[in-house]
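The instructor's notes for this session suggest beginning with a concrete chain rather than abstract definitions. Hand out the sequence below and ask the class to guess, before any prediction is shown, which regions might be ordered.
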Amino acid sequence: MGGGSGYHRDTMQSLTRHVLLIGNSDGIGLHSTRRLLDRGWRVTGVSRRASPIVHASYRHHVLDVSDRDYADRLRVIVAQDPVDTCIYCAGIGCQVDPRDLREDVHVFEVNLMGALRTAEVIVPAMVAAGCGHMVVLSSQADVLVARPAPSYAASKAGMSSYFEGLGLTLRRHGVAVSNLRLGFVDTKLARAPMRPFMYTLDQAVDVVERVLAKRPLRFTRPFSMALLVHVLAWLSRWRVFFTRGPGLPRP
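After discussion, reveal the predicted structure:
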């Protein structure tokens, strides 16, 4: 009995999955961390702020995805403790200020380039191992031409397009990529005056767990929001089609 129990314990330990969670100091990332720890995962968290989580199976690193040395430092972290799953939750948004576009640039650095730099580190190791799963949290806003916050919608459009294309390429290498497109979720990022069909954080993490289990290339929830966004996208593109620039200034 003693030998059998030890074998079972060692086998279960070897089957424990290790996830790297980027952007997990609050919101979906923080709640996903707690849920996955409860499910028995090992979790390594990376965020620009310290984590409130203390757990035997959790390690945290303070690191900003927009830092110049982000990829190099992440490479060291992963080399010390390889992961088989990565969830990219980092994301920000801002209202456009036409007099100063620096915040828009930062939105692209975090939402799109941070995800790409993460993939730069994570994907080759997964390809070498012949397995792995990378999940990126995009948005249903990726189909919109968004006048008040164009950087958010455009950065998510770039994320969706790139990672779905990458996912098609990686299938033959045994590596899965999932583009998770959510609508409004009850986080500090959801600042719109109207937030129809908004998910709670628990509902959002339920979807994350489903994506981890099913490994779809694209997963969109809720469907009711997707229908509304489809209409809004059609209207916004008609507006672009019929809009002309301001007239030339008078001499």
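Then share the key points. Confidence is low (pLDDT under 50) at residues 1-15. The chain has one domain: 17-242.
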